[in-house]
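--- STAGE predict ---
source: upstream dedup step, 1 unique chain passed
mode: sequence only
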Amino acid sequence: MALAGIILLVPNFRSPVVRPMDPAGMLLSISGLAALTYGLIRAGQVDGWGRMDVCMPIAAGLVLMVAFVLVELRVKEPSFDSRMLAQRVFGGGNASMALLLFSVAAVTFCNAFHMQGALGYSPMKAGLADVPTAIGAVVGAPLGARLVSRWSLRPVAVPAITVAALSFGTVGFLDLHTPLVWIEILLQMQGLSVSMVMAPR
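--- STAGE serialize ---
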């Protein structure tokens, strides 16, 4: 269904300017992110940061990402121009989106462990319990786009990010006695607020 929707509904935007490939940037960014991700995952597996199999991949990933930025600054047509991050609107917007997506990933994992590990739900039941997040996203995306077209991005994004942050923080107060209905309301608020920020961006 998703593939059919993409083919039928998503417009095919093509840049009128053909840009050359950036093999060095692609290789450095992919390898850097892969090493950094592996190190962070390994830290969670072994429950420690001081081991060599944790420190080395993280250090290598950071070095490769710094090399990526330095190489992109020298390339005539970089795949990612890091100088754009110095622009307050662009840099601040991307930083907030990065933190927002990081929080979404963290809460998703936390919620899965809470549902299955603490509450004893089956994977199917835990998945169904996350449906309110999707419903909130379906409602929030067009609502956010409509409100931004009327009021501009900032008056919509700031309250939405605030609600998202509060809803993410509330996850830390969930326990075995929290009624499921409150968890569902919290998940719906998360889906609604996050989609209201992401869709207009």
